[in-house]
Amino acid sequence: MNLWRPYTKAMLANGSLWFWAFAFMAFWLAVGAFVESSGVGPGRSAVVAYTTSWYAVIVLLSLSMLAVAIANSLTYGSSALAYAFRFSRLTPEGYFGSIVGGSAVMGAALSFVLLGATAGMFGGRFRLLLLPADPAGLLAVSLLGGVFFMALAVTMILLVINYLGLKSTNFTGFLPLVLSITLGNAQIYLALPSWFVYGSPFNDLASLLYQGYAGTPATVELGAASVALTWEYLVVGILVWTAVLGASSLVLLRQIRSRQLEEGRQI
Amino acid sequence: MAVLEVRGLEVRYPRASAPALRGIDLSLDRERLVVVGANGSGKTTLVRTVLGLVRPSAGWVRFDGRDVRTISGETGVSTNLAEVYRLISLPVRDLVEIVARLKGGDPAELEARLREFELGEVLGRRLFELSTGEQKIVGDLFAVSFGPRLVLLDEPFDNVDFSRRRRFVRLIRELRADLLLNTHELELIAQLDGWRLALMFEGRFLGPFAAADLDRLYLTRGTRADALAVMETSLGTFSVTRDSGDRPVKSATSLNALVESLA
Question: What ipTM, to 2 d.p.?
Answer without folding.
Answer: 0.93
